[in-house]
Design brief:
Elements: E1 4-10, H1 14-25, E2 32-38, H2 45-55, E3 60-64, H3 70-80, E4 85-88, H4 99-110, E5 116-124, E6 140-142, H5 144-149, E7 158-162, H6 163-166, H7 183-189, E8 194-204, H8 212-221, H9 224-236, H10 242-258, H11 263-268, H12 274-294
Length: 298
């Protein structure tokens, strides 16, 4: 029985996918399918995946779409998934051989817990270091906002979601923009749903040059509507702490102006308009500095 679909969005990462594929072959528990969402690759990714479809000892599925950004590949891929769980694994990363075994163990323990949207495991770097930090309390059941944002735990973790819930929160698509930060969705899921936060590594991250994580500020400036919406979501969530909102009110002003949003729309989009007033002065200073340094992100 296949419990989880590993969803991998990819763009011209044919060579990097080989390490991920090898790690899937080595899994001690084969309770998964692998779905590769090709966001317009031109490097022979499709031919490589179709070869693996015939060779693998687990189901491999592939689809191609015109390039539109990782979030559009995720939306289309999630729409195709029928397994109970969805695990998003990037094309330049891979899994330790017991990842699926660990996941299945905890899923069997918690699958009937009311109000869960999924599990949050650890990511390690290739050298064995944890990405940012361990959770202070192992197997704590709490919201994303409380367990991550308010607890000050940064870095990336390995989230596995209940597919039926994930389908209810599609990534927004903005014309001309190819980046949407994933926490825009995770914060929206927080509150209505909680996660189990587990101090077990099921994911190895390798941040390659050219990847989204390393692409930095220019990438975000080129997607200002998405970044504005992210800040809006944080500012309108009553559970988010004040320290985080202070940062987000600056980003809201900065990216809102890169997006050429009218002032009245920006202020009107917040439940507490004082956050916009508080962030306007320093936000405009930073906006002008960033615009001088980065232009419009091009």
């Amino acid at each position: 029985m296949y419990v989880v679909t590993i969803l991998t969005p990819t763009y011209n990462r044919k060579e990097n996918l080989k390490k991920l594929y090898a790690s899937l072959l080595s899994q001690t528990e084969k309770c998964f399918r692998w779905l590769v969402a090709d966001d317009g690759s031109s490097d022979g990714t499709g031919e490589q995946i179709r070869k693996w479809e015939k060779e693998a000892d687990f189901p491999v599925h592939y689809f191609y779409k015109e390039n539109g950004g990782k979030h559009t590949a995720l939306n289309e891929g999630i729409g195709l998934i029928e397994t109970e769980l969805t695990f998003i694994v990037d094309s330049d990363d891979w899994l330790p051989e017991n990842a699926m075994e660990i996941l299945l163990k905890y899923h069997e323990k918690y699958r009937n817990t009311e109000g869960l949207c999924g599990y949050s495991f650890l990511r390690f770097y290739p050298d064995g270091r944890v990405n940012d930090s361990f959770y202070p309390v192992d197997e704590k059941i709490d919201t994303y906002v409380n367990a991550r944002i308010n607890a000050g735990i940064a870095g990336d973790k390995a989230e596995v979601f209940f597919t039926d819930i994930l389908k209810r929160y599609p990534f927004p698509v903005y014309e001309g923009e190819k980046f949407v930060p994933e926490d825009l969705i995770w914060v929206q899921m927080s509150g209505p749903y909680r996660m189990v936060h587990i101090n077990q590594c099921i994911y190895i991250s390798d941040y390659l040059e050219g990847g989204l994580t390393r692409s930095g500020k220019r990438m975000k400036i080129r997607s200002p509507k998405a970044m504005t919406e992210r800040a809006r979501v944080y500012l309108n969530d009553e559970a988010v702490n004040g320290k985080t909102k202070c940062k987000m009110c600056l980003l809201y002003v900065i990216y809102g102006h890169f997006a050429h949003e009218p002032e009245k729309n920006l202020a009107g989009g917040l439940k507490q308009k004082l956050w916009y007033a508080a962030g306007w002065g320093p936000g405009m200073v930073l906006y002008r500095i960033w615009k001088h340094k980065y232009g419009d992100g091009s």
